Amino acid sequence: MELVEERVFEAERGNIGDITAFVTATAERKDIPSGRLPHLELALEEALVNICTYAYRKPPREVTVRLLEDERRFSVELVDEGIPFDPLEEAPQPDLAAPLEERSAGGLGVLLIRRVTDEVHYRREGGRNILALVINRERRAP
Amino acid sequence: MKLERTVQDDKAVVTVVGRLDAMTAPDFEKESLAWVEGGDRKILLDLADLEYISSAGLRAILALAKRARASGGAVTVCSMKGMVAEVFAISGFDAFLPVAADREGGLEAF
């Protein structure tokens, strides 16, 4: 995939709004159907909350947001230098059928990421965690 | 995120306006648990004006539902639309919380 834009943010919950605005503005330009923008926003929030919470034991606490595209897809890569953490493997599987009293809050974020994106990939590369959230682009009429 | 609470008979009807996300969920949790402390038992969450919810928002609603249940009460939600309805369905929250299409149905669900 080809890099469209890249920006570095402090990995703070308070920055999730700014990061979302940055990603959404580019996604709109890149023909992501408007109905998919809430999906992108949700996957982004869930992934960033994970990074802000787990990824770092000490500063610099940065996350690099890389936006990529190919003919078919738009991808948001979240790159951090935190401890190795694969949310797709390590998050607990929520029991969706459990009654209220037994229902726990764990694992919901990753479940939502998986369900609202078209693809999600994790890789560890050069001491960095890289999580890719992929949304398919709208097909343009020929 | 803004919460507007009105009382109808023995029920508290709360309209949740805006976004229930990682930034606003702690406020929702604090305020909503105070309703239960204050004596609310039947709580209807009207989500017609809720534009966005994430897992942080779901957790806050779960915390309220558990607290209400522990106090002998119940939480019902109504008027969900768009991505909010979708997120409820994906997470299975619509299986353990009564969901009504509109406010009238929500009031009757208790």
Description of the structure:
The complex is a heterodimer of chains A (142) and B (110). By secondary structure, chain A is an alpha+beta fold. Chain A has a single domain (2-136), classed as 2-Layer Sandwich (Heat Shock Protein 90), CATH 3.30.565.10. Helix content of chain A is 32%, strand content 29%. Chain A contains four helices and five strands. The radius of gyration of chain A is 15 Å and the shape is globular. Chain A starts with a strand and ends in a 6-residue tail after the last strand. The model of chain A has no long low-confidence stretch (mean pLDDT 89). Chain B has one domain: Transcription Regulator spoIIAA, CATH 3.30.750.24. The mean pLDDT of chain B is 96. The longest helix of chain B has 16 residues, at 55-70. In chain B, strands 1, 2, 3, 4, 5 and 6 form a six-stranded mixed sheet that branches. In chain B, a hairpin with a 2-residue loop joins strand 1 and strand 2. In chain B, 44% of the residues are buried. Chain B has 110 residues and is α/β, with parallel strands linked by helices. The interface between A and B is medium-sized, with 26 and 24 residues.
SSE blueprint and pairings:
The complex is a heterodimer of chains A (142) and B (110).
Chain A: E1 2-10, H1 16-29, H2 37-55, E2 62-69, E3 73-80, H3 87-90, H4 108-116, E4 119-125, E5 128-136
Antiparallel strand pairs in A: 1-2, 2-3, 3-5, 4-5
Chain B: E1 2-8, E2 11-20, H1 25-37, E3 42-46, E4 50-53, H2 55-70, E5 74-78, H3 82-91, H4 93-96, E6 99-100, H5 103-108
Parallel strand pairs in B: 2-3, 2-4, 3-5, 5-6
Antiparallel strand pairs in B: 1-2
Helix pairs in contact in B: 1-2
